[in-house]
Amino acid sequence: MIQLKLCRDATNLAALLTFMQTCFGSSIKKLPALILSTGLMVQIGTAQTTGSWGDQGNGTFKNPILESSYPDNDVLRVGDTFYMMSSTCHFVPGMSILKSKDLVNWEFSNAIMPVPITFDKGFDLGHDFMLSRATWAGSFGYNGEYYLAYWCHNVSGSKPGARYIIVHSQARSMEGPWSQPQEITWANGQSINSTDPGVMWDLETKQAWLACGGGEIYKMSWDGSKLLQNKDEGITVTKTMRGESAKLYKFDGRYYEMNTYAHGPNTREQVINRAKKMEGPWEGRVVLENGNGTDRCPSQGTLLKLDDGSWWFIHQLARGKPAERYNGRPQMLEPVVWTNGWPLIGADTTGDGIGKVVWEHKKPIDGFPITAPATDDDFSRPQLGWQWNWRFNPKMDRWSLMERPGFLRLKACVSLATADKESLKELPNVIGQRLMGHHGNVMTAKFDLSGMANGEEGGLHISAGDNNVIGVKKDELGKMHLFFKSNAAPRKAMMVTAGPNLEQADLWLQAKVENGLATFFYSLDGKQFTPLGDEVRLLFSGFTPNLVGFYTMNTEEKGYLDVDWFKYDYDGPKATK
Predict the structure, then answer these.
(1) Strand, coil or helix: what is 261?
(2) What secondary structure does DSSP assign to 386-404, as a single string?
(3) What are the b/e assignments for 437-469, b being 16+ CB within 10 Å?
(4) What residues contact residue 131 under an 8 Å CB cut-off, 6+ apart?
(5) Peptide bond before residue 64 is cis, with ω within 30 degrees of 0
(6) Confidence of residue 162 (pLDDT cuts 50, 70, 90)
(7) Where do the domains of the chain lie, and which CATH numbers do they carry?
(8) Tens digits of per-residue pLDDT, 180-205?
(9) What 3-state class would DSSP assign to 504?
(10) Mean pLDDT over the full length of the chain
(11) Distance separating alpha carbons of residues 439 and 172, to the nearest angstrom
């Protein structure tokens, strides 16, 4: 919502718009809030929307609180702000951090590994062993001096004798910048071939701990840089109910270890173990399981205590079928009640003493506005927004926000593919952002194609393992042709649907997604949109969500396309500024 206050240079809205157009030309829509030297003051307000999930605007929320892919969370509170770390696999920037004031409304803060990621060459395109893995399942800590983050990193094919390693980074502020990731090893220097680390600094005993391997806890140096024990020298919490996503806590004089226990091929339960001393003895139980509308894996999260004494658990929820999981693993928020030193997470809807998820509840903290991770972009900022992810490291000289201010310029890249050259799988500089929600998705972008070279193609894509693209190709004679192509199941190779010729440089492309079914459209005026190609089913691919975004390619590095703006509407909370 834009509020305009006239001072002396315009007397009505029409005159105001004419005045601004005269002064600023076509870039008027990209003006930030400012006070013009002429005395015209422009104030940018905030419009809030609600939807079928998240903040409902009436003091309650509906789960999921984040109906998008921010998996493997760990949340750390600093003052009145909560910070959430989330896995990013082979996407760049790496290990996203979001922030919230009320545990319901989240927005981007920063990322631990900015673009490009340099600590491992595996983030460069062509290292397929990183696909859907690379870097994931992190844990935050604070040692009284600086903040630390630990996570698992895939090194298959690049480091002898280890499949995974655990790395860490540190920062003076949760807003960053974060240090270059470094591996943490056993005391003898060998790699920790394990996943999903959990860390804790006990400020009372001045001891630091790291949990890994689904039930083992090891002493760690206070600076968090190394373990003080070797493999199998640590504390065994449990030999039965043990799994991934380790978390360590100390509440009211007791130690707690949480993990996600795999119980059957598609079911994981949230387990908590407790002991009066870190050395044990430990006892445990299941505290969250399937039921009340879930059929797969409500687990893998963080316990939090608020100033009013209330407790909450924020976790991911994996859905059962690939058709239901196309946009990844959403985040849920559950109330927690403690009884005799054990937490009941969510609600006991079956009377067995084990929690199940709740779908609606009063917000933990009132008084904060509705917000959500950024989606829309007019590319007027000097840095790319945190919502954008590159598939592997981009070629830094093949994109720019500065060559044409107010536009994202993507320069044509050459695919590394030797077989299906229509696919985007081996193409550098494929960029996109996570899908939001399951209903009402309408994603629209405006392009300027005047910089395209002969042989170049580019456009709007939705991709996970599959690629679905609506775009334009400029042939060797300089003629431009619209097309749609997809290798979504049951296709194995890219199938191309030809569209009409294009006689202009301005082009609007659009995708609509309703509960995983995607359709694609083009427009020559930004008003009337025409469908092109088949409806496709979006599917979950490994641990990689579908991303919507842009690309351009050629047989040589020649030509470019400019993205003017991107707008994303969906059925969920959104704040536009």
Answers:
(1) strand
(2) TT-EEES---GGGEESTTT
(3) bbebbebbbbbbbebbbebbbbbbbbbbbbbbb
(4) 89, 90, 542, 544
(5) yes
(6) confident
(7) 2-45 (no CATH), 54-362 (2.115.10.20), 389-576 (2.60.120.200)
(8) 999 999 999 999 999 999 999 998 99
(9) coil
(10) 89
(11) 40
